[in-house]
Amino acid sequence: MAVTSEYEKERINRVNEYCKRLSNLKVGDVVRVECDSGLGSGGNNILTDITTKYDEDTGEPYKLLWFDEHAFDGRTGRAYNPPTAYYLDI
User: Fold this and answer.
1) Which residues pair with 51 in a beta bridge?
2) pLDDT digit string (tens) for 55-68?
3) Is 75 exposed, middle or buried (0-12, 13-18, 19+ CB in 10 A)?
4) Is the pTM higher than 0.70?
5) N or C, fewer C-beta in 10 Å, the chain?
6) CA of 49: how far to CAs of 6, 27, 29, 74, in Å?
7) The total number of structural domains that make up the chain
8) Alpha carbon 43 to its chain's center
9) Neighbour tally for 74: CB within 10 Å
């Protein structure tokens, strides 16, 4: 069995907490949108809709989080449609 470093355990905990916060979002929540490049921000946006999409490989349902016309993957917080250099900072 592999030994996990304290750093790796903390990173896993941060990812799990992020995913939990993503799953708890609801329409009307205000979420900050950030850009990968650090050259700009989408600012604070209101979550306007949540729809369900199905994973092409597993068939498992997941949420698409909509901020007007810009959708984000509810599993990862990454932009689903262009511009794709954005992510949810929650």
Assistant:
1) 64
2) 999 999 999 999 99
3) middle
4) yes
5) N
6) 38, 6, 10, 12
7) 1
8) 15
9) 21
